[in-house]
Amino acid sequence: MLTWPHPGTDWANSLEEVEPVFLDIARAVLRYENLVISGEYVARLQELDRDLNRYAQENGLPGRVYTVPAPANDTWARDHGPITVATDDGPALLDFRFNAWGGKFPFEKDDALNRHLANAGVFGSTPMHQVDFVLEGGSIEADGQGTLLTTSECLLTPTRNPSVDRTAIEQLLAEVLGVTRILWLNHGYLAGDDTDSHIDTLARFCAPDHICYVTCPDVADEHYSALAAMEEELQEFRQPDGTPYRLTALPWPDPIHDEDGERLPATYANFLIINDAVLLPVYGVPQDGEAIKVMKRIFPSRDILPIDCRALIHQHGSLHCVTMQIPAGVVTP
């Protein structure tokens, strides 16, 4: 699922730079699976529906594009999109509240977007349940077997759920997500990150027993201490059977700054796993090649497709942040 950028978003002055990134993501996804694109501008959606479906058909790709008009403040589908859980009766969609990372930006349209999609029939008969709790998809990382990885900096920020403490959060997530335990990281951040340390920029499950993570080797870098402390926390974490996790450190990209000199949150942890492939954000820096090699070692059975996301990080997010996966069989053409 992608929420397409339009002139009413913060991308207004950089659509020429960012739309090609979204198109690269869309074409890569279509090599392996279907794609839902929502957006506010109907004419642009009609063009995308025509052009991307023609691209898929002419290249013999298995994926097809489904477009649906829906008002949107921005493009961060990972955080305003539906979160899917497996139940005894099949998949169910959870529509958590979204408040733009603690009210930092306008969010009302994004908060209603999932309901627009459901009312348009995109999800067919798959049930969607509203959850009266602020939670972004980028703030949680699951192993698929009951363990959730997250950061206290994000989930405990009072601008999201001010009346809910850590114990209540654990109880709610256990109930609605079906998790049996939560691993909390208390350290780790990226400069330029608006999300209060989303886990999907810092550490990710590669398998139930394997976590890859961001590390900074430069002791003079402002990130060194926080990321070193995060690494120590990861080394202390244990799997349910008591064994340590396999850990893989990701390369640290050279600093990237915007035109005002602000450092941007470039991270290789913001990759997207799809059917038979991994889409990896790259940034036009020397470390991109090593990041690709590391991903190939982590996911030897999957194609590794680098996507130039330098334009994305100018709005302080990357590849995983603008996408949301939906299980096969949920979307109704």
From TrEMBL:
Going by the record, the broad EC class of this enzyme is hydrolase
**Keyword annotations:** Hydrolase
Protein source organism = Marinobacter subterrani
The Gene Ontology biological process terms listed for this entry are: putrescine biosynthetic process
Q: Which InterPro entries match?
A: Peptidyl-Arg-deiminase_porph
Query: Taxonomically, which superkingdom?
Result: Bacteria
Which is an annotated GO molecular function term of this record?
Answer: protein-arginine deiminase activity
EC number(s) recorded for this UniProt protein: 3.5.3.12
Q: What is this protein called?
A: Agmatine deiminase
The answer to keyword Hydrolase applying to this record is yes
